[in-house]
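help with this:

***
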Amino acid sequence: MTTHLLFDGRVQIYRRGAALVWQCAARVDGHRFRHSTGEENLERATAFAEEWYLDLRGRVRTGQPLGLPDKPKRPERTFADAADEFIREVRVLAAGSRSPLYIAELEIRLKASILPFFGKLDPSTINRSTIQSYVVKRTEDMQERRGRSPARSTILSDMVVIRQVLKHEEGAGRLPFMPNLSLPYLTLKKKGRRAWFSPEEYEKLYKATRQRIATCPRRGWKSQYEDLHDFVLLMGNTGLRPDEALNAEIRDVQIEQDDATGETILVIDVRGKTGTGFCKSMPGAVHPFRRLRARRLAELEAEHGAKEAAARLATTNLFLRFNREAFNRILREEGLRFDRDGKRRTAYSLRHTYISMRLMEGANIHQIANNCRTSVQMIEEHYASHIKDRLDASAINVRRPKAKKPAAGPRPRAKGTPRRKRSTG
């Protein structure tokens, strides 16, 4: 690039590469200005640059506007400021009622994708159009990085966080009203069952976990395969959530004789996602629990001795760990990792299996909801509508009886009509 200086270097005349026209640039009153001279000749370009620079200096001296573009002002309070205050309050106020993982997930979602888009915006300017632009940008970025669009649940989770920040602003009186953030393409959802194991697949799974105990493909993992086998059986016969099963202690589980059925079952004092509650198991959960209790006792005796082990047993967790790696490997080897709709099966699928099997056997949906610490609505939406045994064919295939034709014979005489006399001739 060729450059010439004027006014002791306060004005530059330059021409880039193969360009024919000269450009001029100068700094006046703290602002950088550039302009095209429109001239190919250096002398005429120099004369134009001198007049242009002196005109700018004259405008500054007389107080005339320089024609600067209006720069957008940073709002007094941005979405990032609101998000910081929201997270600070959540850490304090929700510490006793929500899991630390929940608060950590809020921070991750904000920092990863929400704040880069909304951080500098004024919360009062966020509306449905802004949200839709965010969803488009989020989808395009993920398609570029991973070659696929974000899941519907991912977008809805982001919407929840954004709505919580705006509600915080509304509650503080800094936002006059809560904007409508609903999106036109996320309101309807196809009904689909959650990933579960059919009775045949569930039998195949627990037989595979039992086989791993006998073969034990990895040295030193026999106790882990034993725990995994009992985990599958206990989850499939109780409907516990994975976190509820991992939080359960030996003292939380009692073996009782049920008066209504006459069967031996487990009564579990559950602590987990929804707080505390009780669960009554199927009879198939009793033997896995006895094995687990004996295994925990043997481990404590080996570590602390028989006397101290008996004292520690009650407060020992039922499951010391959940070997997710071994569980997923068994699912892959048995061809059970995905269901027919392509949904990934996890430990949660065992809970879904329990609920679906109970509904298939004709259990009362309200009792199932209470026993699983969930709502009837959730069961109706994700399980009951897909269980064929809940459809009563006798109530569906109803046919209206056909009207019977009158028997052949004389027509009935209308009331008040005189009887016709028979002729004798």
In short: Residues 79-171 form a domain with the DNA polymerase; domain 1 fold (CATH 1.10.150). The chain has three domains: 2-62, 79-171, 199-389. The CA atoms of residues 152 and 186 lie 8 Å apart. The mean pLDDT is 86.
